[in-house]
Automatic annotation (TrEMBL):
Primary location class: membrane
Protein name, UniProt field: SSD domain-containing protein
Chain ranges passing through the membrane: 268-301, 362-380, 630-651, 663-687, 693-715, 736-757, 769-794, 1039-1058, 1065-1086, 1092-1110, 1131-1157, 1169-1192
Swiss-Prot/TrEMBL catalytic activity: cholesterol(in) = cholesterol(out)
UniProt family annotation: Belongs to the patched family.
InterPro entries, per the entry: HMGCR/SNAP/NPC1-like_SSD, NPC1-like, NPC1_MLD, NPC1_N, SSD
Recorded GO CC terms: endomembrane system; plasma membrane
Pfam families named in the record: NPC1_MLD (PF22314), NPC1_N (PF16414), Sterol-sensing (PF12349)
Phylogenetic classification of the source organism: Eukaryota, Metazoa, Chordata, Craniata, Vertebrata
Membrane topology reported for the UniProt record: Multi-pass membrane protein
Domain SSD, chain residue ranges per copy: 629-794
Cellular compartments annotated: Endomembrane system
MF term (GO), any: lipid transporter activity
Alphabetic keyword roster: Cholesterol metabolism, Disulfide bond, Glycoprotein, Lipid metabolism, Lipid transport, Membrane, Signal, Steroid metabolism, Sterol metabolism, Transmembrane, Transmembrane helix, Transport
Length: 1219
């Protein structure tokens, strides 16, 4: 029978029981604490926690705000926790430092605070915390015996630890240029991982933790403990609806793969060699093949059609070599050219005769003119500032520098030492109790460090005198935290020891072992230079006495990789304040720097080798160099003066030595040249144009070359000329001047126009040089055809009267009637030997082949000329700065800082404006800071070595309500520094969802002054602690522009002044262009870089090249000989000797002296380039150009030929010219 209706049977009971078992929850362990409250002092203001093994205790309502702020995940139910309000306040204080560095990445800080909240307050502490050591404690307040926990184990899930580390590893510390974990991990960021980071945070030796917490990492239960393995947030995840993921700068997975530098340009190769080399080689071979084929073809044609094999190869067949008559039709162009030429000839003839007839008024007028121009010297201003010399006022870099200097002040002045220990040996440090031996470089020996500290202290105590005041380093140094901390910034390894002998000697150990000493502290500080407490037993800070970190790459040199302990040099830097518009303060700094230099020059310590430099050192040494080079320049000019004075005279006999010499005329000619330079400087000084060192050193050399050449042409042409029957002296000199002055006018005016057009350059040094040079050349020409011609007439009259040179009141012993026509040995050499030999048929092809080969070589290497100017070249050989530059290049591992400045007008108060600049959460991925950060990621390409320091990101971290940085007195509203302990100090912004957002609008500007006045301290690591050329970007463009302008102007002026001989102008321009290209070839061969100095020399070489080329070319165009070869021979014979003696020999003597200068810049950029300039100009003007003219020179101007015949008809000159 069944049971009673409605009663369950046994099967039903079993089924119900099974169902209840299935639906019932798993066993729930009772919540249990391991501590509650604080008891017992651990050290300083740090306290132990009290052991407690009971259930969690409801938190008083007074602690609700704190638990919501710190651990919102525990704010539920009756808010029962294993911590009291005091423990929560301690937790908040302890989290301030990591909060300031990690809260810029919300998910990172979320995971970190989760770790500490579970440790401090979790109601389930007993599951993952195991107390391993306690000490008894008597509570004087509650009168109870308690236990203080001195050690416990914290079981943490490996997944949680790794996820927390991965979310934080990329977070930047903007004010320190390093990763945040580099400051919070106790070691270099590259050595930091999840395990050792957590171990460091829980190690009581870090100076922050009151007792030892031993983390044990496992995802599985261990010894009955369930590791804390809460859920985490990745850095690419949002913590809540109001915050976004971490920024690209703080989370690499947000922005994708690391930026890669653009690939290096693929070298242009052909057959595995530089393509330019191959192309130029092929081009040269093709030219030789075509050229010699043409030469051979013409030679064969001549053998068939001409009787004499010596008839020149010349296309101008219509003009017979033996006939001076021409019945061809004269073109309009030829007639115009002849009239222009004749107009110049007649003008200069009349003018020359006038000057000779009226020497006194002309000379007086010239002297008055010179005096008036030179009176401008009272307004002279000199420019030595490199920025003013090399950077154009309108250039981007110049504008940015001036903007920076105006708004932030000029960059600080730098006084720097590089110290080595030549007599010390590497030291081996053996860590206790275990660890691999660590080598220490020679200067890191403790005795050496003590000696260096003595030196450093002596420099700090250097006293200088200025305006009856004593000036010391403390009066001028950079002290970034003043007035709270007036210590000077000293970037030195000794600041790891706070510049203290006692800290350097600090040792912990016993009578048997040394547990920690300066080795330990050094190894820690180079990994965490911003640390306030090292993890060794020393517990000494690493932060410098000035309140900032000392980065090892700034104070150590000669190490490999990141092994700073292997350093072989110490670098000590004293930043000194610079001043924008305060000359008195600047003069104070200069006076101290002078004593600094004198002190180190006289410092003697056999154990130390010191290289040093001050901010004023380079300018001082350049001035000393300039003074020492005065003698070199003077000797150079004296050599040229002596040569000119002697070479101008043509001695007929020993008896007439002092009569026929022209020493006084030579000196007068040189004085005219120098006067033209002085006039140029005086004129522009009137208009406030400052003079530069290049003007003073280069332009006299240039004008002397041009002026002396003209002097030799006038004098030697007159010496070779024979006075016509019935011709007076004034008419003879006028006629000679009419012959040669157009050539002088051609060269001088070409150079003047070329130089004046050079003022279009944007580079101030080139523009100033061009301005002064153009005016000096113009005035020199004017004085030569006026004053010098009058002086020449007076000198010829003296000679005709048989009066001695210089001592003109005394008559010579050997009488001679009149001044005899004479031809110098050099002229005869050019006429009878050199010119005929050079223009032989077999020689001319060789010359062309050789010069085109040199041109091809120079073209092939022109792209390999280096750009830049090694600043050591500006120093004398014996300068102490030379040794400093050498050591700087060998030991310094960091370059100068770079600043990115936003000009006024940007709206920082709007969210959009902030996102365009900042680099933290919510900022644009292409913001300014993010772009700079990306550039730093590829530092090998961009040369930006470290992540940017960003004040706006620090400001956002500083103003957060969770931080203790931004506080105000609730009574006055004034700023309350984080180091102040006062209950009336309250946070600036409320701990609400809105308060946690970035400040905008008025809020942004309200708190900004507080941030700018705050200084970093242990409770608030944020605050303002930011310690604070272009010519090489544009030099290639400047060089191309200036040289093309010069060549273009030379072509135009030459074409006009040669009587519209366009083809002749082309030949001259091509030859000058070849000289310039070959100058680049010489620069490559001789290791001369392209910079502003060499560019000025290249522009000058255009002017010198005109002198070498224009005179010969004009002589060729006015020659009436029948063939091109004969015309080239005549031009070379008459002008070659004057050009050779006037420029080549004159300059060669002066240049050789420059080789003995102490100045490297003189040896390289003046001696080498001037020598190349003269040799290339002489070889092209006196070898290549005549040969080129003999092949492709312009045809004879028939109008000029007939005019010359008419002028010479019935004279001895006709017989000489045409028979």
């Amino acid at each position: 029978m069944g049971g009673p209706q409605g009663s369950p049977g046994p099967g039903s009971c079993r089924l119900l029981l099974l169902l209840l078992l299935l639906l019932s929850p798993a066993q729930v362990l009772p919540q249990q604490c391991v501590w509650y409250g604080e008891c017992g002092i651990a050290s300083g203001d740090k306290r132990y926690n009290c052991a407690y093994d009971g259930p969690p205790i409801p938190l008083p309502e007074d602690g609700y705000d704190l638990i919501q702020e710190l651990c919102p995940g525990l704010f539920f139910g009756n808010v029962s926790t294993c911590c009291d309000i005091l423990q929560l306040q301690t937790l908040k204080n302890n989290l301030q430092l990591p909060l300031q560095f990690l809260s810029r990445c919300p998910s990172c800080f979320y995971n970190l605070i989760n770790l500490f909240c579970e440790l401090t307050c979790s109601p389930n502490q007993s599951e993952f915390l195991n107390v391993t050591s306690t000490v008894p404690y008597y509570d004087p307040i509650s009168k109870e015996n308690k236990s203080s926990i001195t050690e416990l184990q914290y079981f943490i899930g490996e997944r949680f630890a790794n996820d927390m580390y991965n979310a934080c590893k990329d977070v930047e510390a903007p004010s320190s240029n390093v990763k945040a974990l580099g400051l919070l991990c106790g070691k270099d960021v590259k050595d930091c991982n999840a395990t050792n980071w957590i171990e460091y945070m829980f190690n009581k030796d870090n100076g922050q933790t009151p007792f030892s917490i031993i983390p044990i990492f496992s995802d599985a239960p261990v010894h009955g403990m369930n590791p804390m393995n809460n859920a985490t947030k990745g850095c690419n995840e949002s913590v809540d609806d109001s915050t976004g993921p971490c920024s690209c700068q703080d989370c690499s997975i947000v922005c994708g793969p690391k930026p890669q530098p653009p690939p290096l340009p693929v070298p242009w190769l052909l057959f595995g060699l530089d393509a330019v080399y191959i192309i130029m080689w092929i081009s040269y071979m093709a030219f030789l093949l075509i050229f010699f084929a043409l030469v051979f073809g013409v030679w064969c044609y001549r053998r068939r059609h001409f009787v004499s094999e010596y008839t020149p190869i010349d296309s101008n067949i219509a003009f017979s070599t033996n006939s001076h008559r021409d019945n061809g039709k004269i073109t309009c162009g030829e007639r115009l050219g002849e009239r222009f030429e004749n107009g110049l000839r007649m003008t200069f003839t009349s003018w020359g005769a006038f000057c000779v007839r009226n020497p006194r008024p002309v000379i007086l007028f010239s002297v008055v003119f010179i005096a008036m121009c030179c009176s401008g010297f009272v307004y002279i201003k000199a420019t030595t500032n490199p920025v003013d010399l090399w950077s154009a006022p309108s250039s981007q870099a110049r504008k940015e520098k001036e903007y920076f200097d105006k708004h932030f002040g000029p960059f600080f002045r730098t006084e720097q030492l590089i110290v080595q220990a030549p007599n010390s040996h590497p030291d081996i440090y053996s860590p206790y109790p275990s660890g691999a031996d660590v080598p220490f470089g020679p200067p890191l020996n403790k005795d050496i460090l003590h000696q260096v500290l003595d030196l450093q202290d002596a420099i700090v105590n250097i006293a200088a005198s200025f305006d009856n005041e004593t000036v010391m380093l403390k009066d001028i140094c950079v002290a970034p935290l003043a007035p709270y901390n007036n210590n000077c910034t000293i970037l030195s390894v000794l600041n790891y020891f706070q510049n203290s002998h006692s800290v350097l000697d600090h040792t912990v150990g016993d009578e048997f072992f040394v547990y920690a000493d300066y080795h330990t502290h050094f190894l820690y500080c180079v990994r965490a230079p911003a640390s306030l407490n090292d993890t060794s037993l020393l517990h000494d800070p690493c932060l410098g006495t000035f309140g900032g970190p000392v980065f090892p790459w700034l104070v150590l040199g000669g190490y490999d990789g990141d092994n700073y302990n292997n350093a072989t040099a110490l670098i000590i830097t004293f930043p000194v304040n610079n001043y924008y518009n305060d000359s008195k303060k600047l003069l104070k700094a200069l006076s101290w720097e002078k004593e600094f230099i004198n002190f180190l020059k006289n410092y003697d310590n056999p154990n130390l080798t010191i290289s040093f430099s001050s901010e004023r050192s380079i300018e001082d040494e350049i001035n000393r160099e300039s003074n020492s080079d005065v003698s070199t320049v003077v000797i150079s000019y004296v050599v040229m003066f002596v040569y000119i004075s002697i070479a101008l005279g043509h001695i007929q006999s020993w008896g007439r030595l002092l009569v026929d010499s022209k020493i006084s005329l030579g000196i007068a000619g040189i004085l005219i040249v120098l006067s033209s330079v002085a006039c140029s400087i005086g004129i522009f000084s009137y208009f406030g144009v400052p003079v530069t060192l290049i003007v003073i050193e280069v332009i006299p050399f240039l004008v002397l070359a041009i002026g002396v050449d003209n002097i030799f042409i006038i004098v030697q042409t007159l010496q070779r000329d024979e006075r016509l029957e019935g011709e007076t002296l004034d008419k003879q000199i006028g006629r000679v001047l009419g012959d040669v002055a157009p050539s002088m006018f051609l060269s001088s005016f070409s150079e003047t126009v070329a130089f004046f057009l050079g003022t279009l350059s944007t580079m101030p040094a080139v523009r100033t040089f061009s301005l002064f040079a153009g005016m000096a050349v113009l005035i020199d020409f004017i004085l030569q055809v006026t004053c010098f011609v009058s002086l020449l007439g007076l000198d010829i009259r003296r000679q005709e009267r048989n009066r001695l040179d210089i001592l003109c009141c005394i008559k010579g012993s050997e009488e001679m009637r009149g001044v005899q026509r004479s031809e110098s040995i050099l002229f005869l050499f050019f006429k009878n030997l050199y010119s005929p030999y050079l223009l032989k048929d077999w020689m001319r092809p060789i010359v062309i082949a050789l010069f085109v080969g040199v041109l091809s070589f120079s073209t092939a290497v022109i792209h390999n000329v280096e750009i830049g100017l090694d600043q050591s070249l500006s120093m004398p050989d014996d300068s102490y700065v030379m040794d400093y530059f050498k050591q700087l290049g060998e030991y310094m591992h960091a370059g100068p800082p770079v600043y990115f400045v936003l000009e006024e007008g940007h709206n920082y108060t709007s969210l959009e404006g902030q996102n365009m600049v900042c680099g933290g959460t919510g900022c644009n991925n292409d913001s300014l800071v993010q772009q700079i950060f990306n550039a730093a990621e590829i530092g090998s390409y961009t040369r930006i070595g470290y992540a940017p320091s960003s004040w706006i990101d620090d400001y956002f971290d500083w103003v957060k309500p969770q931080s203790s940085c931004c506080r105000v007195y609730n009574t006055t509203g004034q700023f309350c520094n984080a180091s102040v302990t006062d209950p009336s100090c309250t946070r600036c912004r409320p701990l609400t969802q809105e308060g946690k957002q970035r400040p905008q609008g008025e809020d942004f500007m309200t708190f900004l002054p507080m941030f700018l006045s705050d200084n970093p301290n242990p409770r608030c690591g944020k605050g303002v602690f930011y310690v604070f050329y272009e010519q090489y970007l544009t030099i290639v463009d400047d060089a191309i522009f200036n040289l093309c302008i010069s060549l273009g102007s030379i072509f135009l002026v030459t074409a006009v002044l040669l009587g519209f001989e366009v083809w002749a102008a082309v030949v001259v321009t091509v030859t000058i262009a070849m000289i310039i290209v070959n100058m680049f070839g010489v620069m490559w061969l001789w290791g001369i870089s392209l910079n502003a100095v060499s560019l000025v020399n290249l522009v000058m070489s255009c002017g010198i090249a005109v002198e070498f080329c224009s005179h010969v070319t004009r002589a060729f165009t006015v020659s009436t000989k029948g063939s091109r070869v004969e015309r080239a021979e005549e031009a070379l014979s008459h002008m070659g000797s004057s050009v050779f003696s006037g420029i080549t020999l004159t300059k060669f003597g002066g240049i050789v002296v420059l080789a003995f200068s102490k100045s490297q810049i003189f040896k390289i950029f003046y001696f080498r380039m001037y020598l190349a300039m003269v040799l290339l100009g002489a070889t092209h003007g006196l070898i290549f150009l005549p040969v080129l003219l003999s092949y492709i020179g312009p045809s004879v101007n028939k109008a000029k030929t007939r005019a010359a015949q008419e002028r010479s008809r019935g004279t001895e000159r006709e017989r000489l010219l045409y028979f």
